[in-house]
Write a structure and sequence with these properties.
alpha/beta; 17% strand
Length: 135
């Protein structure tokens, strides 16, 4: 799938945050704990790294990510995931394809158990990708 390339700084981590209707499902909506652990994991390896959030829900993202730039633009969100060197993903299918197509990515952090991290059950085992680091 060919898209226009996007130049992204090597010192930037793209966070794919899913809000919207996910927020009303406690089994599905990712907690502050996941996001904090994922950010800390990246920050440990790259202390000077910067973060930006790509989302479908700016209002909810602002509650989770104080001080990070937040973007809601589907084309920019997809291309940012496709070309960033560092990724933190939500459990949304939106990010799977661009993350898997990303040939230059150094690491992809994703929620263990994917769509059921909060219940600790692999409800969708087909969403296990060896390229992802699960927390």
């Amino acid at each position: 799938m060919k898209v226009e390339p996007l130049e992204i700084d090597d010192n930037l981590c793209v966070i794919n945050f899913r809000g919207g209707e996910y927020t009303i499902f406690p089994d599905l909506f990712l907690t502050h704990d996941y996001w904090n652990k994922a950010i800390a994991t990246i920050h440990l390896k790259y202390p000077r790294i910067k973060f930006e959030v790509h989302t479908d829900d700016i209002a909810t993202a602002e509650k989770f990510f104080k001080g990070f730039p937040i973007f809601h633009d589907i084309a920019l969100n997809w291309r940012s995931i496709r070309y960033a060197k560092h990724l933190i993903l939500s459990n949304s299918s939106f990010a799977i394809l661009p993350a898997l197509l990303n040939e230059d990515v150094k690491e992809i952090i994703a929620p263990r158990y994917w769509a059921r991290r909060n219940t600790k059950t692999w409800a969708l085992p087909q969403n296990y990708y060896s390229k992802f680091q699960y927390i």
